[in-house]
Structure formats: structure tokens, C-alpha cells
Amino acid sequence: MFISIGLIGLALIIVVLWDVFETIVLPRRVTRRFRLTRAFYNSVWIPWSAIAVRLRKSKRRETFLGFFGPLSLLALLVLWAVTLVFGFALLHFAFGSRMGLAAGHAGFFSDLYYSGTTFFTLGLGDITPTGPAARAITVIEASVGFGLLALVIGYFPVLYQAFSRREVNISMLDARAGTPPTAAELLRRHQEGQSLKSLDRLLRDWEMWAADLMESHLSYPVLCFFRSQHDNQSWLAALNTVLDACSLVMVGIDGIPKWQAQLTFKMARHAIVDISQIFNISPAKDHGARLPKKDLESLRSFLSECGVALRNEAGDENTLEELRAMYEPYTHVLSRYLMMPLPGWLPKARASDNWQTSAFENVSTAPDQPFRKCMLNAPSRKVPARGTVALHERPD
């Protein structure tokens, strides 16, 4: 019996330490189906997201979902610590609870208490190990506890640095592609700013962003649950917008070379496919509803009115559909799983960017007119379906 208890305790310790190594130290995606961290996130995300679905107000729902990433990370650390403390307590109990107590008799609960004080290096001294095995286990447990604390101290800065790098480009996309970002609005604003050629450099930056996203989110999958600063932004929406824009450029837009769009598309598609494999979810099959035929005609009309010439020759529609089929099934399934809405291809009517909102002002203005002349140096012609926007309280 005591041998079995000792083996269980040793197995718990090995499983947790290996999971800590894979989660914090190992800088690559783990393909093994069963992992303690994966099982933990599967068990807590499902009820958490189920509660979020019942919240009717989008702001309250996004706030609730925003707590999951940091809280789940803290809960995972607690799970590791509690499991290690319990495993070392089982080892002490298996070796006969060789403890010297100031009062009372040694037993499993005294072993558990002593294991906790040793793991967190409290050194209270009310219980002391008396046998060689107990002393050896004490030294090993204290070393493990101190080492885990050091890893956690180094883990959090790396995690939040990766999060900050991710959010910088997402925030910059607000003024370039609208809120929520869309490929059509991205092209429209660059065309009106007479800066369509600079889109090539922008796509090069997003190629680097997609590569950094893939490396950081495969190494630290918990970052996938971290929400952006604003409720109407997300890393998934930004990545989907960039893939949409690359698809349009690859179909053919006058004045924009295809080479960089192809490179960015390949990197972004690689990132979205690999990230979806973290959660073992199959690609969606109903992705085609995002751009039906009538919306495609509206998209062409919108771009044409803005002065962007999207090629419309035989086979171009099939080319766009094939490109969409390479990434939309993955973005759709991630959108449903992570509860991050995807933007459309066309901007919403009467939508305002995040930079145009304020909690302290309430004035009406036409958002684009001053900037077309002063900043973009573009003609002040009317933009279809944009309207006026009132500065109001931030959605987040």
C-alpha cells in the first residue's frame, strides 16, 4: 500500500514538473494530445464561455471574457503548486511520516502541512524531518519550490512583452483600416491618402507581426485568450483583415505589387492554421457565408467608387474564393471558440474609429473631412454610407 502511495506521489510530481517545463521553458508547440495544462484550459474555458454567452450586453461580456486569460494563468500556477505539495506529502507518508512534532503524532495531514511549508520555504520549525529519506525529500521539495518561483518571475515579463508587441500593430490598424478593421476600408484610406504604394511596406510589417504572433502564441498558448484593450478589437480580427487585404491584392489591384502580399498571406495563413491546432478544433465548413455573391458585387462597387481598381476578369472570382478557403475555415472556428467576432469585408455604416471616441466630449462631427484635406491631402469628396459620427463614451 505504501509503495503504491509513493508511486502515485512520484507520478504527480513528474507530471507537473514536465508540464511546467513544456509550458514555460520549452519554446515550441507540444503536439501530445494529453497535457495537464491543456486539460486544465479545456475544463475551465467551456463553463467560462458558457456563462459569457448568457451575458446580453456586449461590453459586460467582453469584460468578463477579458478576465479569463490572467485569472486562468494564476489558477494554473496554483494548480501546479497544490499538486506538487500533495505529491511530496504522499512521498513523506509513503516513507512512514518520519517527522518530529512539537505536539501530537505524525500522520498524513502533518505531512501535508510540512510539505506546504517546505515548498514555499517558510521554515517555521514546528515540524522537522527525522529520517534520511524525509530529509532528502525536504531538500528536493524546497529546491523545486524555489525553482518554480524563479521560473514564474521570469515567465510573466516575457508573456506580457509578447502581448504588448501584439497589441501595438493592432492599435495602429485602427486609423488605417477603421474599427472594426476591414480590407475595403484599408484600401480606401490608402487610396484617398494617395499612399496606395505604401501598402506594400505595411504588408511587410504585418508579415513580421504574423511571424511573431505564431512564435509567441505557439510557445505561450494562454496569450490566445488575452483580449485587446478595446472591445471592438482583437488579434484574430486584425489577422483576418490582413488576410482579406492580401487576397484582394493577389487577385489584382492596380498600383500594388503582388509579391509582398503573397509573402504576408503565406505567413499569416501559417500562423492561423498552427494556432488553431493548439485547441484541436476542426476547420469550419460554413465559412462561405462571410462574402456571398451580392456582397462581392458591393465590395467591387465600393472599391471602384473609392478609386481602387480591383481586377474583374474571368477566373478572378474563383481565385478569390480559393484564397478565402485557405484561411476562413480556421478564422471562423477560432472566432466561435474564442468568442472573438470577425469583421466583414465592407465597413459598417456610421461607424467611428476608436480614436474618434471620448468619454468627456459629446459633439457631432464628420470624422473624415478635416483629415482628408489636412493630413491625407486627398479631395474632400463624399464617402458612400459613412455619415456623421457623434463622439460618445468608449465602448470599452
Describe it for me?
With 396 residues, the chain is mainly α. The relative contact order is 0.10. The C terminus is likely disordered. The strands form two sheets. A two-stranded antiparallel ribbon has the order 1-2. A two-stranded antiparallel sheet has the order 3-4. Helices cover 62% and strands 3% of the residues. α8 runs parallel beside α10. It is built from 14 helices and four strands. It folds into two domains: 153 residues, Helix Hairpins, CATH 1.10.287; 171 residues, no CATH class.
Keywords:
disordered C terminus; 396 residues; 14 helices; single chain; mainly alpha; two-stranded antiparallel sheet; 2 domains
Helix content: 55-70%
Category by helix and strand content: mainly alpha
Low-confidence stretches: 362-367, 373-396
Write down the domain tally.
Answer: 2
Strand content: under 5%
